[in-house]
């Protein structure tokens, strides 16, 4: 009898204890459950930037080229390469006997250039309308040839061509085509400026005049004509983006420029990023030699122009400068270990934060870029937040209350010497 009674008592006690344990520590219990999170990080706000260092060159903002018919047309050169000129200043004295023929050439060029300008403006408007309507697969083809000729054999013949062929099955092709037309239109307008400057001159002594204030850069032959390149006074900074860099650089990106001759680095901004490959030029050839890097596609170089915020006229043309482009920036943001984020998709992710109640909660965050092994957070994580950067043991409890490594901080010597045993006793008895 005693044996059966003991067994019954043991079963009852065991059942009682088990039931209470389930009530105390089960999922529906009100008693908080604690898990251990050994790795945490307190967030601190700062500014972060992803930088792209580049070799760059000082180049003229615009190059104007004036033409004369032939060597025989020029009686005397009045300036030399490297000399400064003002707008309207004579560059060369022309043969008065040949002036009428030269003037007829300039007038014919003016008419042809104006016709090209009008046609390109029409093409540009058409492309912009088609892009706005987003009609996939539509075509815009313009192939115009302009000439000025007559039956009179003494009349000069000017044959200038503009060939714009655009196949636009998608948005990217529209942008490429519009950029190509804009570049041609800009070149036509520069040529018009030069021709109009020649036609505006008056006086008995015919001359080839400078269309703008600037520097005579080069006198050379272009086909059967003599050409004079005049650099405008305004300077800009030219660099090139390789194919893999092009996606990172955007118009308006902040940049810094450093070069001998500048007292300190000066700030600027990216003025333009070309969408078409850069043409072969002395600038591109020099850039390749300065950059000294292997690229997967040798054709994929794109012009990037940086406008400095301060005057750089102390730097000569073709001077090498060091540029740093800030491709991505985040101000007053926080940074956390990249591996601490979960569910990453594009610029979205999830972080685990200890909230005010001591629970681990999942928080959606925005992370536009990574920097030195850390993810930069611009939204939903703030200075002072405590983020769990390592594993959470027994995470099946939701939401888990967190036990942190103890002690979190040791008091300083000055702090613990400021209290005696009575303060501690009073705290434990009357808190």
Automatic annotation (TrEMBL):
Record field: transmembrane: 6-26
Domain of life: Bacteria
Taxonomic lineage: Bacteria, Bacillati, Bacillota, Bacilli, Bacillales
Subcellular location(s) of the protein: Cell envelope
Claim: Transmembrane helix is one of the keywords in the record: yes
Region (Disordered): 114-158
Gene3D superfamilies per record: 2.40.50.100
Biased composition annotated in UniProt, kind: Polar residues: 134-153
GO CC, alphabetical: cell envelope
Low complexity biased stretches: 114-126
Originating organism: Bhargavaea cecembensis
Keywords: Coiled coil, Membrane, Transmembrane, Transmembrane helix
Name of the featured protein: Uncharacterized protein
């Amino acid at each position: 009898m005693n044996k059966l009674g003991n067994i019954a008592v043991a079963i009852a006690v065991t059942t009682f204890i088990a039931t209470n344990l389930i009530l105390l520590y089960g999922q529906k219990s009100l008693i908080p459950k604690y898990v251990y999170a050994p790795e945490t990080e307190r967030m601190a706000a700062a500014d972060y930037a992803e930088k792209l260092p580049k070799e760059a060159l000082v180049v003229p903002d615009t190059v104007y080229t004036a033409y004369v018919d032939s060597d025989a047309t020029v009686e005397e050169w009045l300036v030399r390469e490297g000399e400064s000129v003002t707008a309207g200043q004579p560059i060369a004295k022309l043969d008065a006997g040949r002036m009428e023929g030269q003037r007829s050439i300039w007038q014919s060029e003016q008419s042809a250039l104006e016709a090209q300008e009008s046609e390109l403006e029409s093409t540009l408007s058409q492309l912009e309308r088609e892009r706005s309507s987003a009609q996939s697969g539509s075509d815009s083809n313009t192939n115009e040839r302009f000439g000025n000729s007559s039956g009179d054999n003494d009349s000069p013949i000017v044959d200038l061509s503009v060939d714009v062929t655009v196949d636009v099955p998608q948005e990217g092709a529209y942008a490429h085509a519009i950029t190509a037309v804009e570049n041609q239109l800009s070149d036509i307008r520069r040529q018009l400026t030069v021709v109009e400057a020649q036609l505006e001159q008056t006086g008995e002594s015919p001359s080839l005049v400078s269309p703008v204030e600037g520097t005579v850069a080069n006198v050379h032959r272009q086909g059967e004509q003599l050409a004079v390149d005049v650099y405008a006074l305004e300077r800009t900074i030219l660099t090139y983006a390789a194919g893999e860099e092009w996606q990172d650089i955007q118009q308006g990106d902040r940049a810094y420029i450093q070069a001998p001759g500048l007292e300190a680095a000066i700030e600027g901004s990216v003025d333009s990023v070309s969408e078409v490959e850069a043409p072969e030029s002395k600038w591109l050839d020099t850039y390749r030699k300065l950059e000294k890097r292997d690229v997967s596609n040798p054709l994929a170089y794109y012009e990037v122009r940086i406008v400095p915020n301060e005057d750089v006229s102390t730097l000569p043309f073709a001077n090498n400068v060091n540029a740093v482009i800030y491709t991505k920036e985040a101000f007053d943001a926080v940074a956390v270990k990249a591996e601490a984020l979960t569910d990453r998709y594009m610029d979205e992710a999830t972080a685990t934060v200890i909230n005010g109640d001591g629970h681990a909660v999942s928080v959606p965050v925005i992370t536009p870029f990574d920097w030195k092994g850390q993810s930069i957070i611009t939204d939903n994580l703030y200075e002072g937040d405590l983020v769990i950067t390592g594993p959470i043991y027994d995470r099946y409890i939701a939401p888990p209350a967190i036990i942190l490594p103890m002690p979190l901080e040791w008091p300083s010597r000055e702090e613990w010497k400021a209290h005696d045993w009575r303060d501690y006793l009073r705290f434990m008895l009357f808190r």
